[in-house]
Specification:
By secondary structure, the protein is an alpha/beta fold. The chain is 38% helix and 19% strand. It is globular and about 65 Å long. It binds adenosine-5'-triphosphate. Residues 5-241 form the ABC transporter domain.
Length: 339
């Protein structure tokens, strides 16, 4: 099972520039979470802080008892081996075949024999649907294939936490839909904790168990998907609705005059009515059910009294229509303010 990632009071600046402050959230073990936010709000910086590649000046990131911010470099290095990273461009070596790219972490970090490496690499290549392309160079394949190769490479060390930075960038809608399914299938196969940074509204609507959003140097919210998908928080509703009306402007923050003009506009110009929640993707036929589903149901039902009414109705509807009846909250297990 994947490992829980606990982030407490994280604050990061570069010189005078504050990127975000006091970010607190927990990525539940084995669940899929998405981090949203307009460009430049520090999502990539957040991912890099989780693995200890960037050092926030305040706060902690706890993984299996190791604080990725303040622990000795040796402990951080060891804990980093629990992660699989998929970067925007696949971050492949251009002069190596896909096979050698995917084998690279095994050759670099383990003493496995080539026969064992071959078995692992070919298995991961099959998982991401690249069988037959293993001899090609990254420059000879499409962007979508390069991303899948990057994902295969992220998987070879059996990660318990997978971080994907904009896995959909540059993909057409159909390839993005395949990628969404691949991410859910992957979670069903290996039960890893996953965090995906994306701007893509289809991925946000169909893939994650949980969602968060960074805006104006804060974590606006983080919680079960239903909380964000029904949120009336202006910045969340604007982002998920893909609208111009709202606090997000072309240069991240709109000026006060534009916001005031929008507020004075007739309601019909900004209102779109309640949003539909589309069902979350399920694993492809033949794959096991995601183990996170049962754990998540228990976790969410335990906090059901604390979520806003619209989200509560959506959660109860989801679980009422799924195979088994909703699990009732356990007495005395309601959590604190975080979802
Ligand atoms: N190593 C660094 N040194 C100085 N500033 C940095 C560094 N890395 C990132 N930044 C700054 O941090 C801010 C957030 O960058 P980041 O790439 O995390 O945003 P993002 O939300 O991932 O954006 P996008 O969605 O466009 O990829 C930017 O202003 C960027 O210039």
């Amino acid at each position: 099972m994947g490992i829980e990632v606990v982030v407490e009071g994280l604050t990061k600046s570069f010189g005078e520039q504050r990127i975000w402050q006091d970010v607190t959230l927990t990525l539940p073990a084995g669940e899929v979470s998405v981090m949203l936010g307009p460009s430049g709000t520090g999502k990539t910086v957040f991912l890099k802080s989780l693995i200890g590649l960037l050092k926030p000046e305040e706060g902690r990131v706890l993984i299996d008892g190791v604080d990725m911010v303040n622990s000795p470099e040796r402990d951080i290095y060891e804990t980093r081996k629990l992660f699989g990273l998929m970067f925007q461009d696949g971050a492949l070596f251009g002069s190596m075949s896909l096979y050698d790219n995917i084998a690279f972490p095994l050759r670099e970090h383990t003493r496995k024999k080539e026969s064992e490496i071959r078995r692992i690499v070919m298995e991961r290549i099959e998982v991401v649907g690249l069988l037959g392309a293993e001899g090609k160079l990254p420059g000879e394949i499409s962007g979508g294939m390069r991303k899948r190769a990057g994902l295969a490479r992220a998987l070879v060390l059996d990660p318990q936490i997978i971080l994907c930075d904009e896995p959909d960038s540059g993909l057409d809608p159909v390839r993005t839909a395949y990628l969404s399914q691949l991410l859910i299938d992957l979670n069903a196969r290996i039960d890893a904790t996953m965090l995906i940074v994306t701007h893509n509204l289809d991925i946000a609507a169909t893939v994650p168990d949980n969602m968060g959003m960074l805006f104006r140097r804060e974590l606006v919210t983080f919680g079960p998907r239903e909380v964000l998908l029904t949120s009336e928080e202006p910045v969340v509703a604007q982002f998920l609705g893909g609208r111009r009306e709202g606090p997000i402007g072309m240069s991240e923050e709109k000026d006060a005059a534009t916001l005031a003009a929008e507020a004075a506009a007739p309601r019909s110009a900004t209102e779109r009515g309640p949003r539909e929640i589309v069902p979350q993707l399920e694993p492809s036929p033949g794959l096991p059910e995601r183990r996170a589903v049962t754990r998540r149901r228990q976790r969410v039902m335990n906090m059901i009294d604390q979520v806003p009414p619209a989200a509560r109705s959506a959660i109860l509807r989801t679980y009422a229509t799924s195979d088994s009846a909703p699990t009732l909250p356990l007495p005395g297990t309601a959590g604190s303010g975080t979802w």
